[in-house]
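assembly run, all chains below
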Amino acid sequence: MATKAMTALANITVASATSTITFSSISGAYRDLRWVISFKPTTNTDSLQFRINSDSGSNYNRVFMEGYAGDGKYSAAANNQNIMATLYTTGSPSGHPATIIMDWLDYTATDKHKPMLIRTNAGTNEVVMTAGRWASSSAITGATFTCAIGGGTFAAGTTINLYGVLA
Amino acid sequence: MSMTKISTITVGVGGTNTIQFTSIPDSYDDLYIIASTRNSSTLEHVLIGFNGSTSNFTGRYVTGYNTNTASGEYARYIGNTSTSTYTANTFGITNIYIPNYTSSQYKSISGESSGENNSAVYWTTVFSSNVWSSGSAITSIELTNETGSTILEGSTATLYGITKGSGGATVS
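ok done. output:
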């Protein structure tokens, strides 16, 4: 009998405006984690950011390539206190959810930093591909999501789905 | 089961103008498509449609080709195929993710693609973002090439349904 490779672990659908979404006690039975997020902020200048295991230290790094109203560009940010998965969330038409897909690889390993690939789209406003790294050898057991820049909240209808992927 | 194969389409002799998944069940949360395609023309853009309609789409892409990068708006543009001028027997790959496809909200479509070609010059990588401004559930998906060129024999596309979990998170 075939073993299923991807297992749904957790889900949340925001019912009313919320500032913080927390996943804890993430199972360590898989090799990788996949997050699929439908992000609706209450402020259209907001972005999604996250921390791992409540780590508020300057342990987050990313390099990204972005297509936005203008042209493509690339940039990098190091030693931040979180990782931002988007820059601008409200594309055209306004108010639609942005889609964010994240793969966190080898999340239970205790001998390496944690790499992640993040794919974001926000309609005609932006397309972003991010390679991130959590500079810690601790296993990932939780994650906290908040809105950045605009200081807003997650609007009702935001969904976050977590899947475990077997090797 | 979190990821279930719904159906696979394999293009036969003579090719086709449209790869179409119909009667998509509404029992999943998200949809995922993996497509391997080659077309008969020199035009490389794969376009997406829903429920037999090409209306109410807006989109943006970022692409790398030759030694260039570029971004722009292009509705329905989801990825690239290998064209008639590319290396023989070579097919482009396109991955498409559609969350909450039965939702009454607008639909967000994420595309990742590469028009494979054994050349140091002519190849393309594309990331695309589209929105279908409709509150209707998606019941069929159409993949075509621009100008309606023929998608060649040997092209394939597989549709998967993704089922989410429950619980495991708190809000504050």
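The first strand of chain A starts at residue 6 and ends at 13.

Chain A touches chain B through 54 residues (CB under 8 Å).

not gonna interpret more than that til we talk
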